[in-house]
Amino acid sequence: xxxxxxxxxxxxxxxxxxxxxxxxxxxxxxxxxxxxxxxxxxxxxxxxxxxxxxxxxxxxxxxxxxxxxxxxxxxxxxxxxxxxxxxxxxxxxxxxxxxxxxxxxxxxxxxxxxxxxxxxxxxxxxxxxxxxxxxxxxxxxxxxxxxxxxxxxxxxxxxxxxxxxxxxxxxxxxxxxxxxxxxxxxxxxxxxxxxxxxxxxxxxxxxxxxxxxxxxxxxxxxxxxxxxxxxxxxxxxxxxxxxxxxxxxxxxxxxxxxxxxxxxxxxxxxxxxxxxxxxxxxxxxxxxxxxxxxxxxxxxxxxxxxxxxxxxxxxxxxxxxxxxxxxxxxxxxxxxxxxxxxxxxxxxxxxxxxxxxxxxxxxxxxxxxxxxxxxxxxxxxxxxxxxxxxxxxxxxxxxxxxxxxxxxx
Length: 409
Hints:
409 residues; mainly alpha; Receptor-associated Protein; three-stranded antiparallel sheet; 3 strands; 74% helix; flat
């Protein structure tokens, strides 16, 4: 059944908008009028973007706008709750379509519901929108449908997404103050170098006296910024564009990822975050009945860093030949020792899923605690650095004044 986006007036003459499914535009207008809503315009929403061979191109962000991960998590939690309460899938989807506030997600879910009504599986309907629902989501939904436990799988998906969002929010909150202080310090430095220093330099120039070396260096830096600020901006933009160009190439991405993982402090945090994501995702897939090889093939795309993804990709081949997962991953030596030990214990005890979940929790807590400690140290360090920089500028300005005072006395 087609889906239509409408702009209409309600009984009070207030402008409203939304979507409605109907057999035709005429039926959509009749359906809206029956609800005491009077349509001004009705436009059919394209259900799928089809490319060659009928495959979805996945450009939903162009049509529908950006859909946030938090919106997908809320939708997943709501669908799991409705299914657990005994709602049929189609009715649950229809209920959520009209409760969802995001216009982009509303349109996507309306089309998912129509695909299910036409006789397709829920997982197939989700797979038609790869820009919104990644392979992890689709495969877990497929496993839930096959086992008859879709509401449980969706509940698990919602918990996993909420946990990841919570971790990301805690890290962002911890980094907000240092980032703010960095931007504030940069703004103060630019103001001093472009507004204050030039005026004082003009006074010193009129005096015609030899200036101390720090003062000359400060005035030279100020003149450079004022004269070539556009070149500095172009160089920064060029460096930024070059970085992204290198990152897009396979070899460049691999080199950048290896460099990040080898960095003294950042590499420690990044490796544990990636390992936590790997453990939680693999554990969730295995717990919901996805075969090991298929689960590993999905997980290799979510670890986020090339060395880890290559290790998992190679591990798939070893597992396929009969090797244990621990042995297949240990060959590459990229994962932390604690993770490998817990993975070995999980395989030996037959509780691999539980061990993967515990590992994810351990590393997420470790990363959060480490980020908190780092930011606690960064705050006084940044204040000290700002004080030193501003103090050096003030001292460079005051040195000629001190020399003049000595000549006077």
